[in-house]
Design brief:
Blueprint: H1 3-25, H2 39-49, H3 58-78, H4 82-104, H5 106-111, H6 114-124, H7 134-142
């Protein structure tokens, strides 16, 4: 399989994964397949995996994480600033993985493949060849 198709697969997989998790928080997935199902449950989980964060700051932390996932998801899908967005996504997922690991144990982070997703995002961040990316159109317009 060519490098450009692997890069596209990584972009779409990570980006759609972010947006799927966000959709779950807003109750857009059916209850029987949902992890959180609503914003309140998501904030409860955010508090669980970040026990050192004061309860009053949990909504802000959850909102920032959700905003980052929406932004990164869209940027990866359309191919905007792909390398930078992929690296930032890798750090975000690594933070999630470590928070899960230190609060509830490594099994959850492994079962949900958060370390693997983080590694995939970091790998995507090293791929320079452009394929079906908005960045290509932007760079052509600058020339």
């Amino acid at each position: 399989m060519s490098q450009k198709f692997i890069k596209l697969f990584l972009r779409l997989g990570i980006g759609i994964g972010f947006l799927s998790a966000v959709a779950d928080r807003f109750g857009l997935w059916p209850a029987e397949i949902s992890a959180w199902g609503n914003w309140e449950n998501f904030l409860g989980y955010t508090q669980l995996i970040n026990p050192i964060i004061p309860e009053s700051l949990v909504p802000a932390v959850g909102g920032i994480a959700t905003g980052a996932e929406i932004l990164f998801g869209i940027c990866l899908i359309i191919g905007f600033k792909t390398e930078l967005t992929a690296k930032l996504s890798g750090y975000l997922m690594l933070i999630f993985a470590l928070a899960i690991t230190f609060s509830t144990g490594v099994k959850g982070a492994l079962d949900y493949s958060v370390f693997v997703a983080s590694a995939a995002a970091f790998a995507l961040g090293t791929m320079k060849e452009k394929y079906l990316e908005l960045d290509v159109l932007i760079s052509k317009n600058k020339d």
